[in-house]
Design a protein that fits this description.
By secondary structure, the protein is mainly β. It is 3% helix and 29% strand. It contains one helix and ten strands; from the N terminus they run αββββββββββ. Strand 7 and strand 8 form a beta hairpin. The model has no long low-confidence stretch (mean pLDDT 86).
Length: 144
């Protein structure tokens, strides 16, 4: 039998400058139960929030010179609900739930899929970057 020879070399340097691909790294977010839910090209803390409920706004379509975020949502769509706002208006939300624990993690004003509308909203305190750890804002609106 022929002899199989393989060689490999690994090179790294702490002094090396970041490359374009490392600067555009994808961020992974988990539900509070530990299930993988979202991969996105920026941190959620760097995205704007809604004034009505504090949800994080993810642009899912290019519009008026604003570029859409690259993301993949691993959540199950559920039936739409009608939310009454304190300002007197109503809003239809098509919610997405965690595939493991079925907690709501996101919503949008248009029917699924997640990229069908201009925005996807991530519920405040629903996702964390560290698997198995609660996000700091998970219980901000709870009364003690």
């Amino acid at each position: 039998m022929p002899k199989v020879i393989s060689r490999s070399a690994v090179s790294s340097s702490a002094d090396a400058r970041p490359t374009a691909s490392s600067a555009a790294a994808l961020r992974v977010y988990y539900c509070i139960c530990g299930e993988f839910v979202l991969v996105i090209d920026s941190t959620l803390s760097s995205l704007p929030t809604r004034h009505t409920d504090g949800a994080i706004i993810v642009r899912s379509q290019d519009e008026d010179g604003a570029k859409a975020k690259a993301f993949k949502l691993n959540a199950l769509p559920s039936e739409p609900i009608l939310v009454e706002r304190t300002t007197g208006g109503h809003e239809r939300q098509y919610r997405y739930r965690c595939p493991r624990c079925t907690l709501p993690v996101a919503y949008q004003p248009t029917a699924p899929p997640a990229t069908s509308g201009p925005f996807l909203y991530i519920l405040k305190g629903a996702l964390t970057q560290i698997q198995g750890e609660l996000p700091p804002d998970a219980f901000d609106d709870e009364e003690t």
